[in-house]
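User: Working on a comparison across species. This one is N-acetyltransferase from Cryobacterium psychrophilum. Can you predict its structure so I can line it up against the others?
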Amino acid sequence: MHRLRTDRLLLRPWYVTDADFILDVYSRWDVQRYVGVMPWMMASMDDAFDRLTAWNLIDDGVRGVWAVTESDSGKLLGTVVLKYIPASGTNLAVDLAGETEIGWHFHPDAWGKGYASEAASAVLRHAFAHGLERIVAVTNPHNLASQRVCERIGMRHAGVTDAYYDTRCDLFVATAA
Ligand SMILES: CC(C)(COP(=O)(O)OP(=O)(O)OC[C@H]1O[C@@H](n2cnc3c(N)ncnc32)[C@H](O)[C@@H]1OP(=O)(O)O)[C@@H](O)C(=O)NCCC(=O)NCCS
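Assistant: Here's the predicted structure for N-acetyltransferase from Cryobacterium psychrophilum:
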């Protein structure tokens, strides 16, 4: 997996030693309430290790799931995901090769500092530099913070769609220049 650097951040692979942070983030309703069709709160370290293993399998040299850290201190802040998006009407557990989505989940202590936008911009640049031409993001219509991140990183609002995850989402699109 490519490590990505920004002014303040280092995006790197997840390590086994990060599992307690993963549990801390994904066991919170504030984080999970708009994530997925049926928000699910992580409950155990086993869940966290399973998630970490699944994330590391996504790495194909372009797509992947990055741990976002403060570059000065190494402190973990959150996650940026770049992966195939499941189309509605398919097995949502299996991301068939198709369109690619970007997503972000940060620890509440790290919200409001522009980290999500900074990290996601770096991942978009990486995706386009490695040949991807179109990236989508889908958000719960109530998730204004995430929609604002989409706008801040230059994604275009493309209306509402039922095409993914068997649900209705706001769709944002970024295309290679
Ligand atoms: C979405 C998320 C990553 C945004 O994190 P963040 O630290 O607030 O992101 P940033 O600081 O980079 O930018 C957020 C922007 O949204 C705005 N914002 C934050 N909360 C908001 C809210 N409730 N309503 C409207 N705008 C909001 C901020 O003001 C900022 O915009 P601005 O710079 O123009 O002022 C964070 O809220 C999160 O992790 N949420 C839980 C997981 C999640 O829902 N992920 C998305 C799934 S689609």
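For your comparison, note: The chain is about 30% helix and 25% strand.

User: Helpful, thanks.
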